[in-house]
């Protein structure tokens, strides 16, 4: 019985798409033969690969209720001037929704050589450049079952190219909208940031109304050349009828930096996988993730740091607060290869349970093939502190407001590490909005007491070496 139930939770019926459907779509939108072959190879991998390749995590996988079969895939997206019902997104540079794609690139950005194009337009306008960047992709078909799924069936997404020595000062805002009508958002985002350039990407995911089950699948493949700087923020605020699958990977070259910020709030089932590949000496990566679940939401979050070259630093700070019947799995690995001496890696996974029926697991792992490195992890799952609740309620707060404040304070250790005050305020606003039942795309801005506290303490937080106080690396006289 247990084996049957486990097999059921690991089973995922494939989409009703054939190889001929994929070939026909690819040819009709004018893709080159090499890209058609790539799609077909990816679909073969999708059908062959397991949902969870590691036996260690079989028991945590629960795909019950997830349906990817009946969604509408490989749609022909027209170019539109405005998205239906979302005029407030006029400053977004790229918008993808059921009716089409929208791309708006300011003249000054285009004149600096920056390319922001839909994938189908990039194939036509920049075929050689796109192929050159594509061949360096790290989110390959054999990487993950849902990476193969997205590689095969993407019908939207953006190609971003930042030339050498260009600082993109305005954030590149990418917005993805699900209609809630059994549609599928399958997006492939490919970015190359050349030497000594910088870019700030903000990706937002929302729903337009409630409806039948929808599917959202994402690839973000980031290539950070030597000396470049990439900041990538994801705000996931889908309604609870959307199943979300994402695979994001960054190749961090010599002296480059890639900083990720994730806010996981929506979706009925969320599977997020992030890898930072430290391929060049002196590179750095940061991953800050905030997850807030309620009702029967399920989150499967994975964040890995792979050190390939020497003298690089990578850190993960992941926090999840879960209420009602929601479940969360936070797992990740620091992998230090033989030539990656003087590497420094840190994993931190903390979960807060707000109800008796909420569940969380935090599983950090280390795999180290050399010496002269620093690697450590921290993991904890805790329940709501009743003493904190008593203290706050004794000051006149009602129980719901007291819980809200405890949750915000719990997240703050991760949120305060984000360099941008605007992003910090937005994350807090989205958490409060979800708590109050306000649509996340309408997250209101209120007086931010946490920002006031940071300024009162002297402005931006100054963080010490993450290894300085750890018992394994503490210096003794």
UniProtKB/TrEMBL annotation:
Domain SUF system FeS cluster assembly SufBD N-terminal residue range list: 110-174
GO biological process: iron-sulfur cluster assembly
Segments crossing the lipid bilayer: none
Residue stretches making up the SUF system FeS cluster assembly SufBD core domain: 177-410
Signal peptide extent: none
Membership in a protein family: Belongs to the iron-sulfur cluster assembly SufBD family.
UniProt cross-references to NCBIfam families, sorted A to Z: sufD
PANTHER family with a match to the protein in the record: FES CLUSTER ASSEMBLY PROTEIN SUF, UPF0051 PROTEIN ABCI8, CHLOROPLASTIC-RELATED
Protein name: Fe-S cluster assembly protein SufD
Lineage: Archaea, Candidatus Marsarchaeota, Candidatus Marsarchaeota group 2
